């Protein structure tokens, strides 16, 4: 059985993306992820979760798919015909060139296992792209203040910080490739106030980049090359026997 949280959390996430705050998040993530995957090549690319949101549109890999997670069983979308458990992906080992996990780690009870599965199914030099909420942001602080209504669809204690994710990359065979923080506006639920705080985007990138409400990172699966070490075989040297030339007084030369 999938260890993901119950269906309401994922359903809330999909529905939340249609709110003003969700649209703000979705626009930023779409831009950053599209730039990360545009030049990734291979044969197979897969997005796990939130299939109504196409994060592979900028990629040119010929075989692309978007999958529901098991906890999204109540949310049907024609773009996804496959249900997949992120902790037990239904793909062969080393069969995927590009894997996108939008807010998947923070919606799982075992995010490290999700990352291990990503490592298993990716080909050597394959790429994984992960997005998540930053618990050390103004939005994350808002979630921790008692009495305030939550603004994010994922509880703060479930969110995976980028520092923690980097530690997991080191334990596995992933090498961090690119990363971005974004969405620096304070917690707002209306489009009007989000527009008023739009100047925070440039200021945040310059002065406090690690305090963005979201992060998007890509990592590459590195596989060390194996080299057989053993005794060096000695090549036998062939001796070429030539004619012996004898010279002397009576040789006629």
From TrEMBL:
A single GO BP: methylation
InterPro entries reported for this sequence: Methyltransf_11, SAM-dependent_MTases_sf
GO MF annotation, one: S-adenosylmethionine-dependent methyltransferase activity
Gene3D superfamilies: Vaccinia Virus protein VP39 (3.40.50.150)
SUPFAM superfamilies, per the entry: S-adenosyl-L-methionine-dependent methyltransferases (SSF53335)
Domain Methyltransferase type: 82-130
Keywords, alphabetical: Methyltransferase, Transferase
A Pfam family per the record: Methyltransf_11
Protein's name according to its UniProt entry: Methyltransferase family protein
């Amino acid at each position: 059985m999938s260890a993901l949280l119950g269906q309401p959390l994922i359903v809330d996430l999909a529905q939340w993306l249609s709110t003003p705050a969700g649209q703000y998040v979705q626009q930023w993530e779409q831009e950053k992820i599209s730039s990360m995957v545009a030049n990734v090549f291979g044969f197979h690319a897969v997005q796990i979760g939130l299939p109504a949101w196409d994060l592979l549109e900028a990629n040119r890999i010929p075989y692309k798919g978007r999958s529901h997670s098991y906890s999204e069983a109540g949310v049907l979308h024609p773009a996804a015909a496959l249900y997949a458990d992120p902790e037990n992906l239904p793909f062969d080992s080393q069969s995927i060139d590009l894997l996108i996990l939008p807010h998947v780690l923070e919606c799982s009870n075992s995010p490290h296992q999700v990352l291990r599965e990503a490592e298993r199914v990716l080909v050597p030099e394959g790429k994984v792209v992960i997005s998540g909420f930053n618990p050390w942001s103004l939005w994350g602080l808002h979630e921790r203040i008692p009495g305030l209504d939550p603004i994010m669809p994922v509880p703060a204690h479930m969110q995976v910080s980028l520092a923690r994710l980097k530690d997991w990359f080191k334990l596995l065979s992933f090498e961090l490739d690119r990363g971005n923080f974004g969405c620096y506006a304070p917690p707002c639920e209306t489009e009007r106030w989000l527009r008023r705080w739009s100047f925070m985007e440039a200021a945040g990138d310059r002065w406090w980049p690690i305090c963005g409400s979201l992060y998007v990172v890509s990592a590459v699966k590195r596989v060390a090359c194996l080299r057989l070490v053993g005794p060096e075989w000695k090549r036998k040297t062939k001796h070429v026997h030539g004619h012996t030339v004898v010279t002397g007084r009576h040789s006629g030369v």
